[in-house]
Design a protein that fits this description.
about 0% strand, globular
Amino acid sequence: MKSQFECVSVAQVVRINRKFYAATINEGTDIFEHLTHMTTLAEQLREMNEEISKQKFATVVLGSLPASNDNFISTLNTEKMEELK
C-alpha cells in the first residue's frame, strides 16, 4: 500500500543522498548515534530503490570518521574490499 500512495521524487532522493555521502562525525561525538544516523539514511535510500550495498555502507561510514581514525582505516588495507562489511 505504501508503494501505491507514496511517490518518491528526484529531489527526495538527491536530498537523502547528499546527507548520506556528506555525513561526518566530529571528535568526541557518540559513534553509536552516528551509526544509527547513517543506518537510517541508508535504509531511507534503499526504500527509494537506491542500491546501498554492505560494502558501500562500510566505505561511506569509514569515510565519515574524523582524521584521528586514519590509522584504524589504514589497518583495513589487509582486508579484501569484498570482505568489508
